[in-house]
């Protein structure tokens, strides 16, 4: 009769270990999905930022080209 509680505690400990592992697995999966979501969002925002920077650079590039052309024109006029 004394062996029965020992057996039940072993079963219980195995069950809790499995449950803890399952919970940890679920948590890990959840954390990974959250991390992936954050990574995807940050990637999108970085891409949007770079696109915005490129858009901002475009007029400046045109302006710089115009300055080069005007300076060349003024230089050729002299």
**Beta-strand proportion:** under 5%
Written as H for each helix and E for each strand, in order along the chain, the element string is: H
Tell how many strands the DSSP assignment holds: 0
Helix-strand makeup class: mainly alpha
Fraction of residues in H or I helices? over 70%
The mean pLDDT is 63
Instruction: Note the gap between the termini.
Output: 113 Å
Please render the helix and strand layout as text.
Layout: H1 3-77
Structure description:
This protein has 78 residues and is mainly α. The protein has a domain at 32-77. Helices cover 96% and strands 0% of the residues. The protein is built from 1 helix and no strands. The chain has one helix at residues 3-77. The longest helix has 75 residues, at 3-77. The protein is rod-shaped, with a radius of gyration of 33 Å. The protein starts with a helix and ends with a helix. Residues 68-72 have low confidence and may be disordered.
Question: Which labels suit this protein?
Answer:
single chain; 78 residues; mainly alpha; 1 helix; 96% helix; 0% strand; rod-shaped
